[in-house]
Amino acid sequence: MRQKNEQLPRHVAIIMDGNGRWAKQHSLAVALGHRKGVETLREIVRYASDVGIEVLSLYAFSTENWRRSKPEVAALMALILEFFRSEIDELHANRVRIRILGDTDALPGLQRDAVHAAEQKTKDNDGLQLNIALNYGSRDEILRAVRALAQQVKNGNLQPEQIDAARFEALLYTAGQPDVDLLIRTSGEYRLSNFLLYQNAYAELMFPEVLWPDFTVQHFAQALADFGKRDRRYGGRAT
To answer: Which pTM was predicted?
Structure first.
């Protein structure tokens, strides 16, 4: 395992926003904006692994993204398949462990098989924990955990007063991982968009105006440096 740098966030979450606007600015099809975004994703994952980030969570496809046009959804699904097929060997060689956040049952068969294979292949790795949110919505995740707890109570295996944060968190997709320390949303939009709402309770938030395809390793390094200067009080007073 890499040595922990105390100035680094343990868990970084990124909402990779701006692919469509980047494509429009360059008079390209939206699908090409998403493809350029995958190139950025590749570089950011490598850098996070190299510097010793413990967990990196990427918002790749939300439960609401199915509402987009059929050609755009098809292009995104194709890129998901391409990414896992082309990158898995390098990720595995670098000891990256992949975890998929979201309801993978609703993914097309090829994509579902590819993400499950990636999780299985990397499950024993001890490097960067790479969370990829696919068909993910935080409200759905929370409701899923609540239903599971309710079922345990109904079955007589759990008393309501025994429900605490630890039991609840154990039923989230991120079970066993630290909460988000730093959330980055590119493109200058100021929204969480139903991403890791519970896990972001005390996250530091950054909203760089750069579009995701133009987000470089240098931008990421600056965000990490800025995080190291913040005074995190968790509800307490400034010292």
So the answer is: 0.93
pLDDT at 231: 80
Q: Is the pLDDT of residue 94 over 50?
A: yes
Report the catalytic residues. 17, 65
CA atoms of 220 and 47, how far apart (whole Å) = 9
- The CATH number of 11-137+179-228 is 3.40.1180.10
Nearest to 42 by CA among 79, 1, 2: 79
pLDDT, tens only, 19-33: 999 999 999 999 999
| Average pLDDT of the residues in 142-167 | 98
Rounded CA-CA distance 62/195 in Å is 8
Measured CA to CA, the distance from residue 56 to residue 131 in angstroms comes to 6
